[in-house]
Structure formats: C-alpha cells, structure tokens
Design a protein that fits this description.
Length: 374
C-alpha cells in the first residue's frame, strides 16, 4: 500500500511540475541571431552572436536550439555547441537552462572558409519540463543572408603577367585613342586598320593618310573568368580549385583597379545564383559600391559552364562591332584553345588588348601565357 501511495504521489508531482514547467516552456521567450558583419572575404573571421531571453516568472529547465549552418562555416572548438558536420551543411545543437527574467548572450567565432551566398532561415527551439513529460517545439525565423567574397591574393602571389596588364591599363589612361575625337590626318603606319584611312586626303597627297584621333582618359577594363577547367569540360566543374583561384585573381584585380580610380567590369561564362539565361556581364564603372557589385557577382558564381569560352569571346567580338571604345581584357583561364586564340586575334584586330592570366601555368603553353596585344 505504501508503494502504491508513493507511485501516486510521485505521479502527481511529476504531472504538476510538467504543467508548471513544461507547458509554458516556450512562452515569452525571445531569440535573436546575428553576425558581426554580413559581407566578408573567404578566410575572414567574424562572430555569430546569439541572444536568448526568458521574460516570464517560470524557470525553463531545459531548452534546445537546433539550426542548419553551411558546412564552410568553421567554428572554433569549445564554442558551446554540439556540431554534426556534413559536406554541405552542419547541424548545431545548444542546450540552455533559463532562470526567470534572464538574458543570455553568446558569441561564437567563425571562419568563413569558402565564397558564396548563404541564407539562414529558421532556428528550431524545443523546451520542456524536468522529466520530459511535456515537450513543445517551435521554429524561430531569423532571415539572415551572408555574402562571402572570393579571397584576395597578395600581389607577389599573382602571375607576373598581371603586373604587365596592370601597368598597361594605367598607362593607357593617357594614350588610348578616342575614335570619336578626330584631330586631323597623319601618314599611314604599320598596324593601322583599313577603316581609318582618309581616302580624300590620301588622293590629295598621293600617300595613304589616316585619321588622327585624340586620346581618351579611361579605357574600359574587363575582367573575364573562364569557368571551364579544360577545353573538353562541359556542365559542372569537377576540379573546383583552379576556378576558385581564378575568382580570387578576379576579385584582386577588380579591387586594385577600382582602388586606383580605374573603371572595371566583370564577366564569366558560367551560371550564377538566381541568374538569367545569358552569361553575366557587368559594365565597367567606378567606386566602392560598384566594387561590391562585382564581388557579389563573383560570390554567387556557380561552378557550372553556360557557354564555351570561345563562343563567349565570339559574342564579345560581335558586340564590339557596335562599340567604338578601346577595351583592355584580362582573361583569367586554366587553358587556351586554338578556337579561343582565333577569337582573341579578332579582338586584337578590332583595336582591343587581351592579356591572358594563367591560373595553372603548367597547363598553359608559353605562347598563350603571354599578353596578346594589338
């Protein structure tokens, strides 16, 4: 009989504590999660700040928070969370005990190891009583978006040809001819295109004469990344390391050019997050807002080819038939095919300058690793 009463009393106590602690466990709880910055470069360290507050008179015996995070977010050991690591995502669990009218703030150092655009939508909150009689679960919306740019590369770690391109672009600010500014005529010289010949002046002087053009202050600089890792590759990239390095080169070139007051544009032949059916092209412009636009476009680049690079360059040749401004191209690529060389030569014939920046020098011939210029 005593044992029966013990069981009955114990059951009543467990039931009462379940009603007292378990049923209101998730009531009047507030949770926020934020990052110290929402834009950074791959390899940067930042903090994830969690704040949870119990705004009622009743203690929460246990509270579990679960969230899916990108696998590329590297948390330091001892972060106070149970992490189940996967290749793409990682599951985080945190356990709290909250006294009445208590606020807890925890800071977790994170290293963003890979570029990309990451979205965090919800955190799942589960709470209950001491014995687990009552348990309730509730999703908490967080709506965070993190943009991780490609990492920047030190100037000495870039292929030497980059310094040549950079110097040519800066010098070209003062020596690139403006086809819309005609100052007179001059004798024909080697390399002058036939469409610049002034036939009336040539007939009058008896020698070939060409239009003498003025100079433009800022030529257009285009940074182009070839998403293909080889000529035979199609669709998804199987070796991402060279392409990721190419995007790092592109980010560095854009940051340096815009930092020196030069306009820079960006393009590639791959897909992008929420992109259209045409390859990405962002026209050259100046300033920090434009640099952020370029870096964000690099961050959202998918390692999947949309069109072959030779077709992309062919489209560029056709587009330039309607544009009369000199362009300086920095083509960042893991290889140069015969078809690509043909299109590069056509760009040169139009009066543009193409510099090939190799990603893996061992995979690029000596001829194609040089700057190809008009």
């Amino acid at each position: 009989m005593a044992l029966l009463w013990l069981v009955i009393v114990g059951g009543i106590i467990i039931g009462l504590q379940g009603v007292w602690f378990g049923r209101p466990a998730l009531r009047r709880l507030k949770y926020t999660r934020e990052f110290s910055k929402l834009r950074c470069y791959a390899g940067d360290e930042l903090e994830m700040v969690e704040t949870i507050a119990n705004e009622k008179r009743v203690t929460v015996p246990w509270l579990r928070l679960e969230a899916m995070m990108p696998g590329s977010f590297v948390f330091r050991s001892g972060s106070g969370m149970d992490i189940s690591q996967g290749d793409i995502y990682q599951n985080h669990k945190s356990i709290f005990t909250l006294k009445p009218f208590t606020r807890i703030t925890r800071k977790h150092p994170i290293i963003c190891s890979k570029r990309g655009i990451y979205t965090l939508n919800t955190v799942t909150m589960t709470g209950g009583d001491l014995f687990g009689v009552w348990r309730s679960t509730q999703p908490i919306p967080v709506h965070l978006s993190m943009i991780v740019y490609p990492s920047l590369v030190a100037a000495e770690d870039l292929p030497a040809i980059y310094q040549v391109w950079q110097g040519e672009v800066e010098v070209s600010r003062w020596i690139v001819e403006d086809p819309f500014l005609i100052l007179g005529v001059r004798p024909y010289g080697a390399g002058d295109p036939m469409n610049r010949i002034h036939w009336k002046a040539s007939a009058r002087t008896g020698e070939l004469q060409v239009y003498k053009q003025g100079w433009t202050a800022d030529p257009q600089s285009w940074i182009i990344v070839n998403i293909q890792e080889s000529e035979d590759m199609w669709s998804v990239v199987t070796r991402p390391e060279p392409i990721e390095r190419a995007l790092s080169y592109a980010a560095t070139a854009a940051a340096v050019a815009i930092g020196r007051g030069l306009p820079a544009g960006f393009a590639h032949n791959g897909y992008r997050v929420n992109g259209g059916r045409d390859p990405l092209r962002i026209e050259p412009d100046y300033g920090s807002p434009h640099l952020e636009l370029l870096l964000e476009a690099m961050a959202e680049t998918e390692l999947k080819c949309m069109v072959p690079m030779e077709q992309f360059l062919n489209d560029e040749v056709k587009r330039n038939e309607e544009v009369h401004q000199a362009r300086s191209y920095l083509l960042i690529t893991s290889y140069v095919s015969t078809a690509m060389e043909h299109e590069i030569a056509r760009l040169n014939e139009q009066g543009h300058r193409v510099t090939i920046l190799p990603v893996e020098p061992d995979h690029i011939s000596t001829k194609s690793s040089k700057a190809v210029s008009a």
